[in-house]
Amino acid sequence: MLLRFTFFFLLLLAAAMQPSVADDGYRLWLKYDRVADASLRAQYQASAQFIVAEGQDVVLRTAAAELQRGLQGLLDQSVPVLNQAEKNSTKRGIILRIDPTANVSAQTNTANVSGKKKTNSASAAKGSPEGFQIATQGGNLVVSGRSGAALLYGVFALLRQLQTRQPLANLALTSSPRIQYRLLNHWDNPNGTVERGYAGSSIWKWQELPERIDPRYEDYARANASIGINGVVLNNVNASARYLTPEYLRKVAAVAGVLRPYGIRVYLSVLWAAPKVIGGLTTSDPLNPQVQQWWAHRTDEIYKTIPDFGGFLVKANSEGEPGPQDYGRNHADGANMLARALGQHDGAVMWRAFVYQAGSGDRFKQAYEEFQPLDGKFAPKVLVQVKNGPIDFQAREPFHPLFGAMPRTPLMLEVQLTQEYLGFATHLVYLGPLIKECLMADTYAKGPGSTVAKVVDGSLENHAVSGIAGVANIGADRNWTGHPVGQANWYAFGRLAWDHTLSPAAIAEEWTRMTLTQEPAAVRSITQVLNESRSIYVRYTTPLGLHHIMGQNLHYGPEPWLTKSARPDWTAIYYHRADSVGLGFDRTAMGSNALALYAPALRQRWGSPATCPPDFLLWFHHLPWGQKLSTGRPLWDELCTRYYTGADSVLWMQRQWAAVQPAVDAELHADVAARLQVQHREALWWRDACVLYFQTFSRRPIPAPFPKPIRSLAEIKEQVAIYQLR
Amino acid sequence: MLLRFTFFFLLLLAAAMQPSVADDGYRLWLKYDRVADASLRAQYQASAQFIVAEGQDVVLRTAAAELQRGLQGLLDQSVPVLNQAEKNSTKRGIILRIDPTANVSAQTNTANVSGKKKTNSASAAKGSPEGFQIATQGGNLVVSGRSGAALLYGVFALLRQLQTRQPLANLALTSSPRIQYRLLNHWDNPNGTVERGYAGSSIWKWQELPERIDPRYEDYARANASIGINGVVLNNVNASARYLTPEYLRKVAAVAGVLRPYGIRVYLSVLWAAPKVIGGLTTSDPLNPQVQQWWAHRTDEIYKTIPDFGGFLVKANSEGEPGPQDYGRNHADGANMLARALGQHDGAVMWRAFVYQAGSGDRFKQAYEEFQPLDGKFAPKVLVQVKNGPIDFQAREPFHPLFGAMPRTPLMLEVQLTQEYLGFATHLVYLGPLIKECLMADTYAKGPGSTVAKVVDGSLENHAVSGIAGVANIGADRNWTGHPVGQANWYAFGRLAWDHTLSPAAIAEEWTRMTLTQEPAAVRSITQVLNESRSIYVRYTTPLGLHHIMGQNLHYGPEPWLTKSARPDWTAIYYHRADSVGLGFDRTAMGSNALALYAPALRQRWGSPATCPPDFLLWFHHLPWGQKLSTGRPLWDELCTRYYTGADSVLWMQRQWAAVQPAVDAELHADVAARLQVQHREALWWRDACVLYFQTFSRRPIPAPFPKPIRSLAEIKEQVAIYQLR
Fold first, then answer.
1. Does residue B478 sit at the A interface (CB-CB below 8 Å)?
2. Where do the structural domains in chain A lie, given as residue ranges?
3. pLDDT digit string (tens) for B225-278?
4. Interface pTM (ipTM) of the complex?
5. Contact (CB, 8 A) for B116 and B175
6. B536-572: per-residue pLDDT in tens?
7. Which fold has domain A181-515?
8. Deepest of A661, B472, B644, B713, by most Cβ within 10 A of its Cβ?
9. What is the nearest CA distance from A240 to chain B, expressed in angstroms?
């Protein structure tokens, strides 16, 4: 009796002493909190009584340590890591085994995420050294693959099973990445600021490096590895030459040393003018032998310091950055020179196609016009990195016309996780559907089904290399991404980069369960909010295909009245073309004819207002205010309806979020709830700004049942201007 | 036996379940970790069995909650907060009592910090409503004062007794602030960057406000209140007009709402041109009635939104900022206009004296020349805010000659806690001695003993108001200040602002015990490192009175060779004046005669190289390389000796720090240890840069026993230049 009482008291005490700190979001989706269901936990515990890690591969050791850490938290059980399985033991455990003969083809078979099983593809990732298999053998779970990295991915997949409360019994899971280079691009500056960063300063503390290694670097590496990211460009594409100096390479090497055990390689953005700026040369002409020699020598130095260096990312002749065109050369001349500098080193050149110049017709077309003719001219180590859409990371864009148009060139997809044009870290916008929409878009390059995904993963043209890049939304804010739901965008990018067949909704659910709650109704509600959020954002900001009407410079809030700027293609009127007749940019043959860059099937569908999907309408057509749309309403009424229902939908998001309050950590819940308040205030701001401004052209009333804005256009212009003040 | 065993096991379990997270520095000096000495803890526990908080004053409630929180942690004991003491109870506790008749004069009597007891002064703070008394009455500790804020300060003082393990028995402690306005100045921009900030982005999340209140704001308020800071300027002196708009005032009010319960008022930096930028006026002339009306109206609006608003900080006609001189008016015209706008509101105008213009002779003199003639012209609500030295927050400066020269004007002292010229967040530099050195400097304005402290606290001239400002070193980095020891600078500023008679060494010890360790030998070592650190920094960067030879723009690292800049007084050669004859800026009557701005006693002492303290020598004299100094060495040899011994002293700091390793949290220890590595690398950088550069003028060898630098001047210039690249 005494014993029982004491034991009970002991349990109480144990419960009381659980650290009761609020969830500040630092742990991301790797919380590893104890599985509450005792029976399920017991099942898991029985299957995980030991870990065997065979061999000394450094990434394998990371995998074993991560598995031990995860099991400690999830199962509340210390699990030993052994070098080999005990003979004749009756215990069941998990064996991590590097198998040089493993050939895991590009497929994913998971119980809970992918809709499709056993999808085979001719992807470049076939037989990827990063693919893993989890199988049940002799009562044990065996995680195998050709490399330590494969095992690390396998371990995270296994932990994900537990984190999402899936059964382990007879688990058989095979997965291999469909894309080879899965990179985050940091637009981080040497002074610690982040261009278009909304989550605090850069996590990279250049001033402290190489001597001080912020413990956060390792948590960053863990998070990336857990979603399959295998490369990181550390610095802004508007690059400083600093990073190519021995002084900074020592710092870069220190970061590389933290990322290496997680299977992650570092890359650098390079300043094209570096040979002049730090090399003492008088030119950066890619055909100049001294310039070539400088890069070759510098590249050798980099590989001496960082043997697994990943390669170069280049923004050239874009937005004022120097480039080979300064010397009458083209992008291929530049990229190929860097590829030659890489020589025998295992690295890549990622050359960005984001180029446009003032006054050259329709900005929509420029990257195509500069790059498409270069197809076939790029060296094997070069990938051309193309943004998802032709303008610049708008809330919704048609896919970039270069996809499908450069069959002889591996094209990387660049998406933006930092919400430059999607409400910074203040608006809840889950980007899974945006990324997926682009990946699933059909280019018709080789007939129906020639999706962007197949262009990017290399399967359409059997390219040997493939890549995808996400512009990071990560900063030094405690919760990494500012908005807690920004974490879901980081997460979804990694998951889709690994396997673009996954559904964004399933990824959202997975993330929600790992990050926020296991309560089924709450998971459903939150997942629904996430899935709708991007469409809602589009509706209250840029419905029907409007684009680029945001606040100048800041890229926040509405400024459709922006008429003058340093360049015409930085104004808003360049894009919306509102006049007394109607609204929208005519990109048909009657207009800029940008539509001609797409395949005939698309030209036909998008070329007629009757068949063009409403979401893309004003991307391609200048339509009269009274034009009846497929929705049954005249353009003006449909426009207003979307602005009003879009803003109202934020109230729906608020209600959904309020309802899950009991199921979510209080601090986290309050954080998101408060941001949803800001979001609604600003959704009304967008709505009123846009309907009042466009009304000056349409001269039509706000349609019933929507109330007139209570403020004037002048008032809202004044309010918006405040955010543009120095 | 079973019971005993179980109890023992229970204890073990309790110990094991103590949250074992590494110390990330977030809790600053308010850790409230349990007092390890069981006997001492029991004594404390016996004295703290209840808290009585009499009344509903909001700051009093804060005080009671803080006391409860502190005791919970320190004593591991839940202490109830009662509205009144229980009758006939035998328990002993702590009573918080607002006593409207309390008259706590400006004095500090503490057992552990102040060398002097019962120091009376005629300070403006006499009978301050913020003064508190802690007395033992009927077995209870009674904390009393005229206001809730007084009690809050008393509670923090009481907790400090426990945190530093002082006895509570018969405690009698009286303390009152010597200076009325004790402010942090944040140089934080609306976009989230911090000018001269080295600890991440701004803690103020303007985008999220007013709806989202970051929980960090309250921790910030607690930290400030714990050291007596009672006001905060939220935005950069290079001010945006945004903050004066209703849109932003709602955000400011939300922050004010968090700070108010901690006795802290918010202030704003204002853009002089605001009437033009956001007011629609065509002028900002302070004598223009429309301008006056605009400010008066705007000020009324502010007080409607924030009833306890503190007032305005102004940087005018300085470094390109607009100001009254744009209209031919002077600083007094501008400041007095704002004072009139404040009208009956309880607020102040803090007008900065940091002004200098290109090509106007010696920059040293300009603030004096512009401001001294205005003495007596300022309205009562105006304080003129003067930097500690005449140039700009250099590692060591003579005190600003305005101190003592404007008897009819309350002068605020502005010191810089962010280490703009002192190694950012990378070098360990404790600023207590720097601040104290200025405060103790004798102006001789009314004879010997007319210290800067007495000018600033108002006692020298019996001013009704007094103030001190510290430019904050706070950012969103997890540990607030980047370098963990930066916290000591925030702490020391608050303590000295409250009572400038405290010794920096005692403050350092106090901070160390509250923040790092209680182990006596470790406390001694760390305190010693802190106390020496600023002198060491001066030695390896700017010994003997050198100044302003740092990297241009960046203000980091050496650049004594800087010859050209946008302005002559932004170069290094303007200040060091090295030539084949010698080194230093002749500010005697033979030179710029800046020395004439000081009292005769100082003119005499500093005017002769023989009597001028070595620390100020090159501030006032251009001396031949071979000139024998009071140290016995020729100038060149002494210069080299200081550079070499200064750099070597960083190794001493490293050794001292290594020795305290067992007594300090591992993560914190590793952090500081790594930064000390950077510091030594960069101390050598400074040393080599300066001795090699000055050697090109002196043409003398590095004196024995010091080794020649192993690198060339060209090499080090190249290395320094890297940090200046975009």
1. yes
2. 29-175, 181-515, 538-585+622-722
3. 999 999 999 999 999 999 999 999 999 999 999 999 999 999 999 999 999 999
4. 0.94
5. no
6. 999 999 999 999 999 998 999 999 999 999 999 999 9
7. TIM Barrel (3.20.20)
8. B472
9. 6
